[in-house]
Amino acid sequence: MKAIIPVAGAGAKLRPHTYTQPKALIPIAGKTILSFIVDQLHTAGINEFIFIVGYLGEKIQDYVKQTYPDLHCHFVYQNERQGTGHAIELTKNIVGDDEVFVVLGDTICDYDVKEIMDSGYSMLGVKKVDDPRSFGVAEIGDEGFITHVVEKPSIPKSNMALVGLYKIKETHFLFECLHHLFTEDIKTYGEYNLTDALDCMIKRGARFKPFKVKNWFDCGKKETLLESNATLLKKFGGKIHESVQNENSIIVPPVSIGPGCILKNAIIGPHVAVGANTTVQYSILRDSIIGSYTNLYEVVLDNSLIGSDASVKGLSRSLNIGDNTEIDFG
């Protein structure tokens, strides 16, 4: 089985961070979003990965090669973003007849990957939501199979949202339906959508079973990213690297603090993730994500997202600051 991870999106809702960093490499709970996905699939036994890259794709490629040198990886460039269906179609020659596990590049979920891989059916991950109109939606029949999927319906007939996890056994069928979308120019909201291809498969006789995820961590925008960071820190307990220099500072768990950090007269936590080689002095941080190689001095931050190589001095408020930024409120 091969894993396909589309990470070509521009991540507009996480700007300014995604001007300089792909969304998949945004840090959360001591790891990147992409590492949560790859580690989960690799632990379950998947060793071959296809990354669909585009915007800042060279950063994805460099990160994967450096972090996972032993994985068998392919990189496919989606130069024109025409939707998830278009992205998956680009992998056709690499996939061949193998089964695939497609995981959207901003999807961190809590579920049993091995159980899904071992199932004899194609399967789609779902989660009950209050307002399904912003998601792909799955309708489930009496026999437990999915009867219809539709992308962002204005009048949903189900509250089971597709979470971005797709295990597909009949890949030849998938690529036939993707080809059908292109030849008939079938688009949803101006894009060739994977959901439409899956619905085409169902109409032609493919059988999909739903599987419910225990948790679905939304990493799409600042507020939900910070909420997901807090939840994941609670779940995994956080980690303070042994090289961290702590001088007269208080740490309130759970937190994640990367290697090479210097803490001086600071209070950090709860629910704070700090990247490598960051210095925090005379500051109070809580419910925040701080990038690497950043300097914070005399600040009080709550619910803030600070990029890498940033410098912030002297303030008390909530911030959303991108990479390579210097701010002095003195």
Automatic annotation (TrEMBL):
Identify the InterPro entries for this entry.
NTP_transferase_dom, Nucleotide-diphossugar_trans
Alphabetized UniProt keyword annotations = Transferase
One molecular function GO term is:
transferase activity
Q: Which ranges carry the Nucleotidyl transferase domain?
A: 2-234
**Gene3D superfamilies the UniProt entry points to:** Hexapeptide repeat proteins, Spore Coat Polysaccharide Biosynthesis Protein SpsA, Chain A
- This protein's name: Glucose-1-phosphate thymidylyltransferase
Q: What is the originating organism of this protein?
A: Panacibacter ginsenosidivorans
